[in-house]
Amino acid sequence: MAYERKTNYTRQQLQESLLARIEEKPFEKITVNDIVTPIHLNRSTFYRYYDDKYQLIDEIERNLIKELNERNFQPWEMFDPYNSLDQVRAFVTESLALYQERTQLLHALLGPNGDHSFEERLANEFKRNFRQRFPDTTPELRLIQEMMLAMSMQAFRYQLFHPTEITPDQMIELILGMIHDGPIGYLATHYPDKKR
């Protein structure tokens, strides 16, 4: 039991150190020494747990995707017209809580220095869940899936990298307005003086 706790603690230290290094420089340029030195471990300790930095980041990403699935986090659902006002509010509130809980992790992985394949991995997971709900494979449905995914991923990234620019209530109202009126209709209603 004590050995398992120590193992988990060491893994957590290595993961947190890698995420901190990603905030400083691109993942591709990070070495094992960069990871272990700040936490006063040596390379042999690292290799006791991981084959290389790619296995380490893979574990971090898999754990995050597992957590997102356990919490049933599907960003495209915020634009699902079948959701009620209360469902959208609950989804956005839960999303914002997730951002706050996992800010360092998400910021590192999705930021400019992160593992560039992670966003694609995340998008593929969301697509898989979308296809479970809408299993048809018509070209129209695939295009709708791509559009909803792109819109929701950009909203997700915007909230992550600009957390103080829009309040949760503003985000909810914006999403509801776009669901109800569409993006062009929303712009015409809320920014009428910008019409040509």
Question: Could you characterize what this model shows?
Answer:
- With 196 residues, this protein is mainly alpha-helical.
- It has one domain: Tetracycline Repressor, domain 2 (Orthogonal Bundle), CATH 1.10.357.
- Helix content is 71%, strand content 0%.
- The protein is built from nine helices and no strands.
- The protein has helices at 2-22, 32-36, 43-49, 53-70, 85-101, 103-110, 116-133, 139-161, 168-190.
- Helix 1 (2-22) packs across helix 6 (103-110), helix 5 (85-101) packs across helix 9 and helix 7 packs across helix 8 (139-161).
- The longest helix has 23 residues, at 139-161.
- The protein is elongated and about 60 Å long.
Please give a quick description of this structure:
With 196 residues, the chain is an all-alpha fold.
Write the layout of secondary structure elements.
Blueprint: H1 2-22, H2 32-36, H3 43-49, H4 53-70, H5 85-101, H6 103-110, H7 116-133, H8 139-161, H9 168-190
Helix pairs in contact: 1-6, 5-9, 7-8
Instruction: Tell me the major beta sheet.
Output: none
What is the CATH superfamily? Tetracycline Repressor, domain 2
Q: What helical percentage do the residues reach?
A: over 70%
- Can you tell me the residue ranges where pLDDT is under 50 for at least 5 consecutive residues? none
* Residue-averaged pLDDT: 84
Q: At the first level of CATH, what is the class?
A: Mainly Alpha
Percent of residues in beta strands:
under 5%
The number of strands is 0
Radius of gyration: 20 Å
Task: Write down the domain tally.
Answer: 1
Oligomer: single chain
**Helix/strand/pairing category:** mainly alpha
CATH arch. level architecture: Orthogonal Bundle
Order of helices and strands: HHHHHHHHH
